[in-house]
Design a protein that fits this description.
The chain is mainly alpha-helical. It has one domain. The chain contains five helices and two strands; from the N terminus they run ββααααα. The protein has a two-stranded antiparallel sheet. Strand 1 and strand 2 form a beta hairpin. Helix 2 crosses helix 4. The protein starts with a strand and ends with a helix.
Length: about 120
């Protein structure tokens, strides 16, 4: 028990849960930005800032626990950078520039979301 087969490869429940955590955090980021509307570009709302940064911490932590095999199945993602953003937010939060975070959202989040959707589909989640 505890695994599902995708082809000949067993996937642990924990792996599936980590992928779902990433997907849910991505959906939450999009929702926070949508709710913030045009004001997000200015990032003067501390609640929006906190919410978006928290979701990136969730994503990074989940990524750190993905197996090397799972990461290898989405080579277009720079997994170390995703985990590194989590570390930056958690440990060097004073260096966070929300304009750069917004650029990451616009540039990189769609690619990550597509990769996660594909990984979840591969394992039948």
């Amino acid at each position: 028990m505890g695994g599902a087969c995708a082809g000949d490869r067993a996937v642990s429940r924990r792996e599936r849960d980590r992928l779902r955590d990433i997907k849910e955090a991505i959906v939450a980021i999009w929702a926070h930005i949508e709710r913030a509307g045009r004001e997000f570009a200015q990032v003067d709302d501390p609640l929006v800032r906190a919410a978006v940064l928290y979701e990136f911490v969730v994503i990074g932590e989940a990524v750190k626990h993905l197996s090397p095999e799972t990461r290898a199945r989405a080579p277009q993602i720079r997994w170390e950078d995703v985990a590194g953003l989590r570390d930056l937010i958690a440990h060097e939060y004073v260096r966070i520039e929300m304009k750069r975070v917004l650029a990451i959202v616009e540039r990189d989040l769609p690619t990550l979301e597509t990769a996660i959707d594909g990984l979840l589909a591969d394992i039948g989640a």
